[in-house]
Amino acid sequence: MPRRTTAAKRFAEALAGLARPRNTWQRWREQLGVVDTAMHDPALRLSLDSPRLPMHSKQERLRGALRDAVDDEIRNLVLVMAQRGRLELLPDLITWFGDLADQALGIRHYTVTSAVPLTEQERRRLRAQLTGRDGQVVIVERVDPAVLGGLVLQQGDVIHDYSLRGRLESLRARLN
Question: pLDDT (tens digit, 9 = 90+) per residue, 87-111?
Answer without folding.
Answer: 899 999 999 999 899 988 888 889 9
